[in-house]
Amino acid sequence: LLSVGASLINFLVARVLLQVGRAHRSVALEADARHLMADVWTTAGVVCGVGLAVVTGWGWLDPVVAGAVALNILREGWELMRRSIDGLMDRALSGVEVAAIERTLGEASPPGCFHGKLTTRAAGAMHFAHVELCVPGDWTVAEAHAVADALERIVLERTGTRLATRLEPIPPTISPGTQAHPS
Q1: Which residues of the chain register pLDDT less than 50?
Q2: Measuring CA to CA, which residue among 138, 160, 163 is closest to residue 149?
């Protein structure tokens, strides 16, 4: 009864840790939650295995249930290793996250500006993006940087992604009979 009571508490704590870990992109909290859940499954397996063996008289049920619990622990361990390695290696953001950044840039960019060459990466819990922001060529540096700073702030607020912008001028439309300035 004490083991079952402790397992119920572990189950509740694991659920909270998992939610907080996912919300804060913390592999460490998720690992703690999975460890607690492995303990819960181990206790459930022991109780079920011994209980089934006693009730049915089939002594072989206990080691079969223990084997199933062991396989679950191995699966959880593998998942923890995979997530930990993923947390150490930079990777591109998911399609959903990239779409949210694209949508935010599209909604927040002033008329006459557009963006391109968006690249993303996640390093642990941090998300980063880099974008080329094209602004009218006749804007001042101050105007262009004000827009870039505003977009970086809005993307961070809405998506949690740290955006770096590279400013590029949009050349004025060249009308027939005029010469372009050499760059």
Answers
A1: 174-183
A2: 163
Which residue, 160, 125, 162, is CA-closest to 30? 125
- pLDDT at site 118: 92
Q: Shortest CA distance to 121 belongs to which of 163, 155, 151, 168?
A: 163
Report yes or no: 97 and 155 within 8 Å, Cβ to Cβ: no
163, 101 Cβ separation under 8 angstroms: yes
Q: What is the pTM of this model?
A: 0.54
Q: How far apart (Å, rounded) are the C-alpha atoms in residues 18 and 126?
A: 18
Q: What is the pLDDT of residue 41?
A: 86
Query: Which region holds residue 179: left if phi is over 0, alpha if psi is between -120 and 50, else beta?
Result: beta
Instruction: Tell me what pLDDT residue 154 has.
Output: 94
Nearest to 143 by CA among 172, 163, 174, 169: 169
On whether the CB atoms of residues 27 and 21 are closer than 8 A, the answer is yes
At residue 29, the pLDDT reads: 86
Residue type, 4: V
- Dihedral of alpha carbons 94, 96, 99, 105, sign: negative
Could you tell me which of 109, 116, 100 has the C-alpha nearest to residue 159?
100
Element (H, E) at 54: helix 27-56
